[in-house]
Amino acid sequence: MSDALLTVAPQRWALLAFARLRSLWQRWFLWLLMAVLVSVLLVTVVWLAGRHEVEQVQAALDRDTADAVSDLRSGFQRNAQSLRATQAPGADRTQWSTAAAALLREHREWLRLEWRDAAMRTQQAVNTPYRMRLLDEESRGPEQSDVTLACAAARKLGAPAYSPSHYVPIAGGGGIEVMELCLPIDGGGYLVASYSLRDALIELVGSTLTRGQEVAFTEADGTRLVALGSSRRVGTRVFTSQQLIDLPGAALMLRVDGWRAAPDLFPNMLTALVTAISIALVSVLVLLARDTRRRLRAERDLADALAFRKAMEDSVITGLRARDLQGRITYVNPAFCEMVGFSPEELMADSADAPYWPTELAHEYQQRQARRLAGGMPPREGFESVFMRKDGTRFPVLIFEAPLINAHKVQTGWMSAFIDVSEQRRIEELSRASQERLQASARLATVGEMASLLSHELTQPLAAIASYASGSLNLLGPHAKGDQGEVAMAVKRIAEQADRAGQVIRSVHDFVRRRDRTREAVAPQALIDAVLPLVRLQARKLGVTIEVVLEDRLPAAMCDRTLVEQVLLNLARNAMQAMDGPDNVGSRVLRLRVARAVAVGGTVQEDGRRWLEFSVADLGSGIGEDVAERLFTPFFTTRADGMGLGLSLCRTVVEQHGGALVFEPNKPRGTVFRFTLPAA
Fold first, then answer.
1. For residue 659, how many other CB atoms are within 10 A of its CB?
2. Rounded-to-integer distance, Cα 103 and Cα 135, Å
3. Beta strands 603-604; 599-600: pairing state
4. Pairing mode, if any, of strands 589-597 and 545-550?
5. Is 327 helix (H, G, I), strand (E, B) or coil?
6. Is 400 exposed, middle or buried (0-12, 13-18, 19+ CB in 10 A)?
7. 3-class DSSP state for residue 73?
8. What distance in Å separates the CA atoms of residue 482 and residue 188, rounded to the nearest whole number?
9. What phi and psi values does residue 100 have, to the nearest 5 degrees?
């Protein structure tokens, strides 16, 4: 056993040693990796700091150059305006010379001012008092190309123009760079100013720019024309910035060279930086590990909460919508998308108007949304609105809104809940229609009872009237003449109308009791003639002209004569009342027409039966759409003294005969009522 232990022990110790060595190697490898990372970080920080400093210096130089270019452009523009001011209307050469001399004393950058005519001949010239005369008269003639080109460009542009720079030698050696400014004047001619580029740099560029820097005018190809400022110091770095001075007719580059020493780093700073960054790095790693564990735990909890909330929101049938304080939709649930028919992407598009707002109500909804975003609180019991689905259909919704408050007690928007109440409204409408039908049935039953009572009560008085009329006719005798004959005719009419009233009462009584009436063949002319006397009485009062049109060889109508006469009489009276207004004075015509018909209610009949069509047309104001929908509803009337039963009873009478009662607009105005009856 001891030999076995001795044999196993070295193997175990070897394994333990190898494990420790590997752990130590891993630890040193991690420390080495950390040291490398810190070194790389330090080098990167130093490099970035130097680069940042270089960028700052370059950015400052670019800003200085841009400011200098802006100053130059402004200076050139002011000088051009000052030069134009010397050419006052009506000024002569003497006055111009005085003004030009004063202007040259103010602007050291100018060498000479000239007044030239349209042929480029010098009319007047003034030289600067600060220099000896550099530009002689012989070289300033019309053949001078620089001035000629500048003036040609100025005349073409109608504005000041500049010539390219040119070198003017100085007696005794050397020379200066000169640029010409040409300004066209009214009535022909030019004002020419000669710039010294060096003096322009001195006068028009700020003096602070030339301290520690070199400022120069260069050509577009980089050729240096003039330069000002300090020269480069040994051991410094050059920073260069150049920008174009775009002048009409000439292009100059402004170049600024700056000198700056390279940044220094002290050893103690490096040591402190290494130590601080190392400690900070280890601390940050520990803190990051702890924070990562906390974040992972919080993210798992948040994911579970979001999944629970999402499942709960997806399961409800109430539409949910969230908006921010600018009115943009930030969230919608599936129920709301299904309600309006739009996808979440379409609803959350950055648009002022919601796609589910009806076009005719969009302005009203915008105002309501503006009030809500301004802080207006919605009613807690909710409010109703109308939305539009993607297919264009409208539906009512009940909206509940509440402020959306975050964890910091700050309102970030509004949360809204929507309930589709279209089915509820449909049920309410059906219930209301059922109640109205029940009430109408009750009223019709009451009318039926009243009709039965009236028929019973009026039968005896009408019979008495008929008896008295017959007795009066017997007393007058069959051969009454003169006044007695007229009285006999009137009594006879009384007897006829009493008999007619009795027939009407019996017909209404049978109609209400739904008894079968005896139908007979009646000529259409007889039906019209029966109602014409009563129609003419009302027409005479209202000033209505009656026209009767009957087709030739019309067959007789198979109908209940009394009821059909009442239908004709009721339609004729309604037509005349429709024309009783100030708008129909002089155009009151009632047309009664009877013709053959091949259709009943717009449907062609194929049973071989023949039909007659009766029409009553007026020239009134017509029937509106809101009235047309309820025209045949019992107890609906537009007159203060009406009961609303006339047209309903007329339609019922016509339909009991198998026909149909319809109406349509009359041309050019008014309404036409048509009903059909079967022919005998």
1. 25
2. 18
3. antiparallel
4. parallel
5. coil
6. middle
7. helix
8. 118
9. -65, -40
The answer, yes or no, to whether the previous bond of 668 is cis (omega within 30 of 0) is yes
**Token code pair at residue 93:** 């050469």
Instruction: Identify the residue whose tokens are 């045949």.
Output: 632
CB 121 within 8 A of CB 151: no
Using the predicted structure, report yes or no on whether residue 529 has a pLDDT greater than 80.
yes
* Beta-bridge partners for 661: 675
Give the per-residue pLDDT at 678. Answer: 92
What does the block give as tokens for 436? 């109205």
Indicate left, alpha or beta for 394 from its phi (over 0: left) and psi (-120 to 50: alpha).
beta
The rounded distance, in Å, linking the Cα atoms of 574 and 542 is: 12
pLDDT band at residue 647, thresholds of 50, 70 and 90?
confident
Number of H helices, E strands in the chain: 14, 24
- Dihedral, CA of residue 282, residue 284, residue 290 and residue 295, to nearest 10: -150
Pick from 677, 563, 523: nearest CA to 609 = 677
Residue with tokens 């009408």: 462
Residues forming a β-bridge with 242: 255
CA distance 109 to 107: 5
Residue 298: CB atoms within 10 A of its CB come to 10
- Tell me the C-alpha distance between 547 and 593, whole Å: 8
Instruction: Examine the pLDDT at 144 and tell me if it is beyond 70.
Output: yes
Of the candidate ranges 24-38, 56-70, 503-517, 557-571, the one whose mean pLDDT is the lowest: 503-517
CA distance 679 to 555: 6
Average pLDDT over residues 556-585: 86
Angle at 413 between CA 408 and CA 414, to 5 degrees: 120
Look at residue 304 in the predicted model and tell me its pLDDT. Answer: 83
The pair of structure tokens assigned to 544 is: 């209505």
Q: What is the pLDDT of residue 50?
A: 63
Return d(Cα 39, Cα 27) in angstroms, integer.
18
**What is residue 192's three-state secondary structure?**
strand
For tokens 């810190």, the residue is 38
pLDDT at 111 over 50: yes
Q: Are 148 and 142 a contacting pair, CB within 8 Å?
A: yes
CA distance 257 to 265: 25
Three-state DSSP at 87 gives: coil
Kindly tell me if the per-residue pLDDT of 444 is higher than 80. no
Evaluate if residue 613 carries a pLDDT over 90.
yes
φ, ψ (nearest 5 deg) of residue 548: -115, 125
pLDDT band at 316 (very low <50, low <70, confident <90, very high): confident
Greatest Cα pair distance, the chain, in angstroms, is: 172
Q: Do 521 and 557 contact (CB within 8 A), yes or no? A: yes
Asked if 333 and 319 touch (Cβ cutoff 8 Å), the reply is: yes
- Cβ neighbours of residue 228 under 8 Å, at least 6 residues apart? 198, 201, 202, 205, 210, 214, 215, 216
